C-alpha cells in the first residue's frame, strides 16, 4: 500500500480528494492535515508517508513552510487554484502540480508519474527527482497579484511583458502594470518559451503583443502595451531573438 497524507484546509476539498483517492486500491490515506502548525507537528511525530497531496495556501501560511521546517523524503503532489508557486513547488520534492478543480484523469496521471519515480530497491533520490522533473516542465498560465487588500488573477496570455524596476518585477497588461513576487530569472524558467523571450536584463516580452521591431541602429521592440521605457534587445541576444521569432 502507498501511505498517503492530504494537506488541505478546506474540508469539502479534503473530503473530495480522499474520495477520489479511494478509487485507487493501492492508495491508503493515513492522515488529513489542515494547517501549517498541524503539519509541522504531524511530520515531527510520525513516519513520513511515501506520497503527499498538499494544497499550498493554508489558513496560517503556505504548506512550503512545513517542508522547509521538516524536510521529507516523500513525494509531493501540490494541489492549488493558483499556479504562481510552480517553481518553488518543484524545489521541494514535488513531482506534479494539479490545478483545482482536480480532474479524475489528471489525478490518475499524477499517481502513475509517482509510481514511475519509485526506485525498485532503494529510497528516494532527490537528485534523480529533479532531473526527471526537468523533462516534464510545467509552464505558468496565470498569476495572482495583489491590489490593495484585493487579489486578482491575471492570465499570462494577457501579459505583454514583464519588466524590472527598482528591484521589483512588474507584469504589464492592457489595464496597467502590476507588481509580482517573481524575479525575471524565475520567470524565464516557468514561462512558455514559445511565447515569452527575455530580450535583456530588464524585460521579458510576449510575442503576441509585438507591434513593431526596429533594426537600426539597435534592435528595438515596440509592444502593444508597455511601460515608458524603450525595449532594446541586448546584442548578445539578437541571434536567439531572431531564431525565437520564427520558431
TrEMBL record:
Annotated HTH LytTR-type domain ranges read 143-247
| Post-translational modification 4-aspartylphosphate, affected residues | 55
Cite the GO molecular-function annotations of the record. DNA binding; phosphorelay response regulator activity
Top-rank taxon of the source lineage equals: Bacteria
Q: Does the keyword DNA-binding apply?
A: yes
Q: Which SMART domains match?
A: LytTR, REC
The species is Chryseobacterium taichungense
Q: Which InterPro entries match?
A: CheY-like_superfamily, LytR-like, LytTR_DNA-bd_dom, Sig_transdc_resp-reg_receiver
Give every Response regulatory domain span: 3-115
The name this protein carries in UniProt is DNA-binding response regulator, LytR/AlgR family
Q: What is the lineage of its organism?
A: Bacteria, Pseudomonadati, Bacteroidota, Flavobacteriia, Flavobacteriales
Keywords attached to this Swiss-Prot or TrEMBL record, sorted alphabetically, are:
DNA-binding, Phosphoprotein
Amino acid at each position: 500500500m502507498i501511505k498517503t497524507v492530504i494537506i488541505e484546509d478546506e474540508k469539502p476539498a479534503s473530503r473530495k480528494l480522499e474520495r477520489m483517492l479511494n478509487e485507487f486500491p493501492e492508495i491508503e490515506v493515513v492522515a488529513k492535515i489542515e494547517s501549517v502548525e498541524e503539519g509541522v507537528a504531524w511530520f515531527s511525530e510520525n513516519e513520513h508517508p511515501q506520497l503527499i497531496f498538499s494544497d499550498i495556501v493554508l489558513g496560517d501560511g503556505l504548506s512550503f513552510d512545513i517542508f522547509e521546517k521538516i524536510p521529507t523524503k516523500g513525494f509531493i503532489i501540490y494541489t492549488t487554484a493558483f499556479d504562481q508557486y510552480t517553481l518553488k513547488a518543484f524545489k521541494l520534492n514535488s513531482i506534479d502540480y494539479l490545478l483545482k478543480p482536480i480532474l479524475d484523469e489528471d489525478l490518475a496521471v499524477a499517481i502513475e508519474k509517482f509510481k514511475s519515480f519509485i526506485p525498485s530497491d532503494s529510497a528516494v533520490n532527490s537528485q534523480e527527482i529533479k532531473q526527471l522533473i526537468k523533462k516534464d516542465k510545467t509552464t505558468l498560465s496565470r498569476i495572482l497579484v495583489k491590489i490593495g487588500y484585493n487579489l486578482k488573477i491575471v492570465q499570462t496570455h494577457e501579459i505583454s511583458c514583464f519588466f524590472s524596476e527598482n528591484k521589483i518585477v512588474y507584469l504589464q497588461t492592457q489595464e496597467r502594470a502590476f507588481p509580482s513576487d517573481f524575479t525575471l530569472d524565475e520567470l524565464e524558467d516557468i514561462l512558455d518559451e514559445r511565447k515569452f523571450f527575455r530580450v535583456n536584463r530588464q524585460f521579458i516580452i510576449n510575442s503576441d503583443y509585438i507591434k513593431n521591431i526596429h533594426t537600426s541602429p539597435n534592435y528595438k521592440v515596440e509592444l502593444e502595451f508597455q511601460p515608458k521605457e524603450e525595449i532594446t534587445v541586448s546584442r548578445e541576444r539578437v541571434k536567439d531573438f531572431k531564431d525565437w521569432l520564427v520558431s
